[in-house]
Design a protein that fits this description.
18 helices, binds 6-diazenyl-5-OXO-L-norleucine
Length: 565
């Protein structure tokens, strides 16, 4: 059961906040059930409210998703962004399912040895911080392209973000701590003064005003995405890049394209899952694991029991080994999606499973690396009263991305280049290894784990789900789905019960601190190596019950919050 201490459910009914009246709410709505109302779940109450405000003004799920992303770029600078990238998986009430890829790309000047120094050493410090780490940002192009499905004018969608940047908002304890932790980096990587550095340490309740960002957002409101990719903001990005070792040139920005793709679709139980395919590994991993689990009768074991964890871990191990070998940007490397999800392949992959004994990861391939603990990305789940749904995961990669703020423009740039395999077998910040398929190439999209997901039942949305968490993303989404649909937990428990993760390498089961002791002991007896780690993910879930009630749940691991139309 969940520790009640963490379950601070502040039921506040239907809000009609306008941002000019009260920009400084510091509340968190953890769960809400409504009928026939649109709902938004995101990492920050003010961002969720920005989305809900769009729903109240007649907008749909796509309007809300755009406004929420823009507001997150202000109130959740650790991950919300206009200088990063993301994926949207959408369903329209007309029955269309689509995905939009606005993942960053490697600049034209990048190449496979860009992160190798004179001694042949892979420099993760270059791929993880500072100007070289920055991929060409996709978020603004992505939001512009998702306007195809939205109803409200761009100016209205961006208005809450502008107000929040201009007038400021009160920061949470988590944000204050994170800003203090990254102070040194902000100073090291930036020439001028940035809004994220104060003369004294930040504390909870301090007002964070971002004047430059407000101006940038105003420009984008007025002139649209072209201001970011061709206009004055593009020039500022290039200037910032040329100040140090950055690679992004004006052509990279001019040429950046968001891509509508067929979503990855597979069936499971009596449902259809629509999720993100390549260049995210997330959907393939989710599908492979669910198919492997289908071979065992998981529901006969308890939720988070040693037996259930054992089976899930063995499926995870196999899927993540495939991630490293086969997955990359399909424009540059062969697309193995069909093969990896085919019954023949799944059967052959599962043949080596033997109940009660772990299969060593070395059996699949021999490599060494060490996973580091999670950093930041953020997920938004939206369902509107018409049945449109948007599942969006967006990222700067690490906390505050490259910690580089575009001078005079006030926004942070991503450090997404680290998601490439910078040298075969060298682990990225999430411990993921890769090789040829995910090597750096000019214009290529780096492999992601983001897994924004929609589940449909009888062609109507049943679940909207996703989370941040680097390589733990697919397994967190998996556990949320398995908890709800195989172990029949409540939506809240599906999100909040303790999580675990295995990613092939290192050959370790990571688990949260409150994981059932008894299961851990049994797993250890079976021969598994266990390691406690920081909280896994921040899952945002919306579930529609058979009776048509909609329940939205915001993860208790953060300040995440639900807002209603
Ligand atoms: O695309 C990816 O898989 C990573 N850049 C996501 C980073 C992330 O989730 C960090 N958050 N905790």
């Amino acid at each position: 059961m969940i520790n009640n201490k963490f379950l601070v459910i502040l039921f506040i009914g239907i809000f009609s906040i306008t941002f000019s009246q009260n920009p400084n709410q510091l509340f968190s709505v953890k769960e809400l059930t409504k009928t026939n109302k649109g709902m938004v779940v995101s990492a920050h109450s003010l961002a969720s409210e920005a989305g809900a405000l769009m729903l109240r003004q007649g907008g749909n799920a796509f309007d809300a998703a755009i406004a929420t992303q823009l507001a997150l770029a202000v109130v959740y600078p650790q991950a919300g962004n206009i200088g990063g990238g993301g994926f949207l998986v959408g369903h329209t009430s007309q029955g269309e399912n689509f995905s939009l890829d606005y993942r960053e790309t490697a600049p034209a000047k990048a190449h496979s040895n860009i992160f190798i120094d004179g001694d042949g050493k892979a420099r993760t410090d270059w791929s993880q911080g500072g100007h070289l780490a920055v991929g060409v940002p996709g978020s603004i192009r992505g939001m512009e392209q998702s306007m195809k499905y939205a109803k409200l004018p761009w100016k209205i969608l961006i208005a809450p973000a502008i107000k929040l940047a201009k007038h400021g908002f009160l920061i949470s304890e988590e944000e204050a701590n994170l800003l203090n932790t990254h102070r040194k980096d902000f100073i090291q990587y930036n020439a001028g003064k940035v809004a994220f550095v104060k003369d004294r340490p930040w504390k909870k309740g301090d007002l964070l005003i971002q004047k430059d960002l407000a101006k940038t957002l105003k420009r984008i409101a007025k002139k649209g995405a072209q201001e970011f990719y061709q206009g004055a903001i593009a020039k500022k990005i290039v200037k910032e890049m040329s100040r140090v070792k950055g690679l992004i040139q004006i052509e990279d920005l001019n040429n950046y394209k968001a891509i509508f793709r067929e979503p990855l679709h597979f069936t499971y139980q009596d449902k259809d899952i629509y999720t993100m395919g390549l260049p995210s590994s997330g959907g393939i991993i989710l599908g492979q694991i669910l198919y492997m689990l289908d071979k065992e009768n998981l529901s006969q074991y308890g939720q988070n029991s040693a037996e259930a964890v054992h089976i899930m871990v063995e499926a995870e191990r196999r899927a993540y080994a495939d991630r490293a070998e086969y997955m990359g940007d399909p424009a540059f490397t062969h697309d193995y999606t069909k093969y990896l999800l085919s019954p023949e392949y799944i059967n052959s992959r599962w043949k080596s499973f033997s109940f009660g004994s772990p299969t060593p990861s070395s059996q699949f391939k021999n490599d060494k690396n060490a996973a580091k603990e999670s950093t930041q990305t953020t997920h938004i789940s939206v369902l509107d009263k018409w049945g449109n749904a948007a599942s969006v995961t967006t990222t700067l990669n690490g906390y505050y991305g490259a910690r580089v703020v575009v001078q005079g423009a006030g926004f942070l740039l991503n450090n997404e280049m680290d998601d490439f395999s910078i040298k075969p077998g060298v682990a990225n910040m999430f411990g993921a290894v890769g090789g040829e398929a995910n090597k750096v190439e000019p214009g290529k999209r780096m492999l992601s784990s983001m897994t924004p997901t929609l589940i449909l039942k009888n062609k109507a949305v049943y679940m909207v789900v996703g989370t941040p968490g680097g390589t733990t993303i697919p397994t967190s989404v998996l556990q949320a789905i398995v908890n709800k649909d195989i172990f029949h937990t409540t939506a809240s428990d599906a999100v909040n019960l303790p999580k675990f993760h295995h990613q092939w390498l290192p050959d370790v089961i990571y688990h949260e601190s409150n994981f059932p002791e008894n299961s851990l002991k049994q797993l250890q007896k079976m021969g598994y190596i266990l390691k406690e780690r920081s909280p896994i993910g921040r899952t945002e879930m919306i579930v529609v019950s058979q009776g048509g009630q909609t329940t939205a749940v915001a993860d208790i691991r953060g300040d995440d919050s639900v807002a209603v139309e």
